[in-house]
């Protein structure tokens, strides 16, 4: 059936009105934007979801427990031979642990950075710490409680700041970590004393004056020696210098998300953009030629 001229005019007018009013969707569907590159993604995915990571961490705490028992029997053993004074064999035993990514799992914070497209900032980190949502690393509570049951003082030397010490203490206590008897400060934070900066050597030395330090556990080279602040070649030399400690009285927890291993690759120049840092990291890789 053919439409008369009046009907045609009415149809055209109706279509125009619908376009103006937005009743007709003329938007062409577009593909969802791809996630932006983020160096934290695979590391955080592995730490949160892989059984390999959980097993790796438990392996380390299991080995540390074996070495702890041996060190309790052998009074000459110490994890800080350069800091212990003559007669240290008669001192009460202690162990020193870092907190973040050693006994406290902060992968929720890393996941937050990934999902919001942000980089680390002291503002968001402080808010996260104050929320007291960090979880315990697999086997960490059991290991520290075992050490305490053997009469070993458990010290936590962390670069969380003094302002966050109370929140950290409450978070750790709620998770079941031994936090001392109230007479000894066992949670030693950055800035708690004016001389306590990022380097941990002075805090370790203070403990070594009063205790025989049996073991040290951390996720970063700087948790064991202040020589961690060197360049890549210097760090490699220091690693080899302390070879006898690894797996005996120094235990490193895996942390592929962040640490001095990453910052040393771009010269600790945090003014560089994420893309520039990534390029610096690529530049130091030892690559197959492809031939």
From TrEMBL:
Record bears the keyword Lipoprotein: yes
Source organism (scientific name): Vibrio quintilis
Gene Ontology CC, one term: cell outer membrane
Record InterPro entries: Acid_phosphat_B-like (IPR005519), HAD-like_sf (IPR036412), HAD_sf (IPR023214), Lipo_e_P4 (IPR006423)
Annotated protein name in UniProt: Lipoprotein E
Gene3D superfamilies recorded: HAD superfamily/HAD-like
A Pfam family hit: Acid_phosphat_B
Range of residues in the leader sequence: 1-26
Alphabetized PANTHER family for the sequence: ACID PHOSPHATASE-LIKE PROTEIN
Record keywords, A-Z: Lipoprotein, Signal
Keyword Signal set for record: yes
């Amino acid at each position: 059936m053919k439409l008369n001229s009046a009907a045609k005019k009415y149809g055209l007018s109706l279509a125009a009105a619908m376009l103006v009013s937005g009743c007709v969707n003329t938007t062409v569907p577009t593909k969802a934007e791809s996630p932006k590159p983020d160096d934290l993604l695979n590391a955080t995915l592995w730490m949160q979801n892989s059984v390999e990571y959980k097993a790796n961490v438990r392996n380390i705490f299991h080995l540390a427990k074996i070495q702890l028992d041996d060190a309790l029997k052998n009074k000459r053993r110490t994890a800080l031979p350069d800091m212990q004074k003559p007669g240290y064999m008669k001192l009460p035993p202690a162990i020193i642990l870092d907190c973040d990514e050693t006994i406290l799992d902060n992968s929720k914070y890393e996941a937050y950075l990934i999902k919001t497209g942000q980089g680390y900032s002291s503002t968001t980190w402080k808010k996260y710490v104050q929320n007291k949502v960090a979880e315990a690393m697999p086997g960490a509570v059991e290991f520290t409680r075992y050490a305490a049951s053997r009469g070993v003082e458990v010290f936590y030397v962390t670069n969380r700041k003094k302002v966050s010490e109370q929140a950290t203490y409450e978070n750790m206590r709620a998770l079941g970590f031994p936090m001392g008897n109230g007479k000894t400060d066992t949670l030693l934070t950055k800035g708690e004393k004016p001389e306590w900066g990022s380097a941990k050597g002075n805090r370790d030395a203070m403990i070594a004056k009063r205790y025989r330090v049996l073991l040290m556990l951390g996720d970063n080279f700087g948790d064991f020696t202040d020589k961690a602040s060197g360049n890549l070649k210097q760090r490699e030399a220091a690693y080899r210098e302390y070879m006898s400690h690894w797996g005996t009285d120094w235990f490193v927890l895996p942390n592929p998300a962040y640490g001095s291993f990453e910052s040393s690759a771009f010269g600790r120049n945090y003014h560089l953009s994420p893309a520039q840092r990534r390029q610096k990291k690529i530049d130091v890789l030892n690559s197959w030629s492809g031939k």
